[in-house]
Every structure is written in structure tokens, then in C-alpha cells.
Amino acid sequence: MSAEPFPQDRSGQRAFPIVLVTVAMLAMLFNGQRGMRSPPMVWASWTVLCFGCLPMATGLALDGWGRLRSRSWAVLALLGAVAPLVAVAWVPGGKAWLKGRPDLLVLAVTLCVGCLVLGALHGRVDLRRWGAGLGDWRWWLPRTGLGVLGCFGMVALWFWADPAMRGYYPSDPMAKEGLGGLLLFCAILGLYMVGWESFWRGSLLFGLARCWGPLPAILFGGLPFFLMHRGKPESEMIGSFVIGSLLSWFCWRGRSLWPGVILHAVLNLSVQVAGYTMM
Known about the structure:
This protein has about 280 residues and is mainly α. About 75% of the residues lie in helices and about 0% in strands.
């Protein structure tokens, strides 16, 4: 199969990349300065809303606006994603209230995902063009398996060489409470990675690649991905640009964001477990 998953079919439409970049900036703003960092389930659900639901709903609207069904579902998905974001960012007391009701955030995520799936099915919008399908799984699945095995060895060497990593991880008090807390936190991290990677290796990468080609899309997403790692150990922040760019290429070649979800989730699980064992 060709390594080129989709044609560059939007290069002549200026509004397309402008909308994508604007939504990307809003997603990073809501997740950063306006975000919620605790408790872990709230943090993960918030990330899925910002980085998963909001950009994917925008993608559904961009590809299906000319069809009533897809447009209607896209609007519902956008409303479901935007309502909690607005409540937290600008409604007095909204942030504290939602922090105490993680079930409402999970419900909002579920409704948004349901609207996305129904909009894609009824509106004949192919979300695989945004990286949401399995893609060339015969190519990426065995290589992802090798990458998973390599993660454990790389993390062991990384922790041996960098005391800052040993001091930083595990990164959440829940993961330090005991084995049960560690496992629960790692499970929540898996949900977090679905939202995180559906943006970096999904809607942003595949959307911009349709306008500019894969290399500019990979490099454009690499810098903010690097900046989003600020506050972490220096070696991790520096490595995030290189590893993130390679992961973007891997997902582009595999025609799917899911190898990014798997590899990033395993890497995070590895550093949390490594840090726990060295406490």
C-alpha cells in the first residue's frame, strides 16, 4: 500500500486550515490556562472534551456541512463539547461545581462521541480521513507491538540515566498511595491519551496534512506539542519534539491515530510504574 493515506483535497480552500488552527488554539487554551488538573477522572474527561470532541466535531462540520444530517449532528456534538468548556472558563462557580461532578463530564464526553458517530454514519462523513479508523493496521500493528516492547527497555535506561525522572514520577498523589491507586491512575491515563492523541495524531495532523502535506503538518504540530510538556523533566521536554514528530509520521504512515494512543499510553504507564517502584 502507498504511504500516502489521503489526497490533499483542501489545499485551495483557505478557510479550512484557518478553522483547524483556530480550534487547535482554543483546545490548547481550554486545556491549559482554563483547564482542570484534578481529580484524575475530571482531568482525563476534560482533556477528551478539549482535544478529542471539540476538534473532531469541527472536522465533522467541515466535511459534512453541505448535508443536513451531518451538519445537525456536528452542531449537537459542538454544543455538547463547548457547554462544559464555557461553564468552566466563564461561568462563576462553574469550575468548582463540575470538579465535584465528574459524572457530568463523562456524560458530556459520551454524548459528544455518540453525536460524532451518528453524524458520520448518517451524514456519510468518513472520520477515517481524520485518523479515527484502523487504517493500514497490517502495517502498524506489528510495529506498534515492537514499539511497546521497546518502551520498557527505553524507560528503564532513561530512569537510570536521569535522576529528575525518578524524582518526578509517579506524577499524581493517587499513584503514590499504593498499587491499587497506581493501577487506577494508569487506567485513567489511558482515557486521557485517547483525547490527547486524537488531537495531535488525529484531527490536527490529518486535517492539516490534507491542506499542506504530511511534513509541514508534522512540524507544525511538533512545536506546541513540545511546549505542552513544559514543567516536566528537561530530558522529557526535549525528547517530546523528536518522539512526537516520529510518532506523527508513524500514525500518518499507518493511516490511523490508534498506534499513537497505544504507544503513548504504554510509555506513560511505563514511567508511572518505574517511578513507583523507585519511590
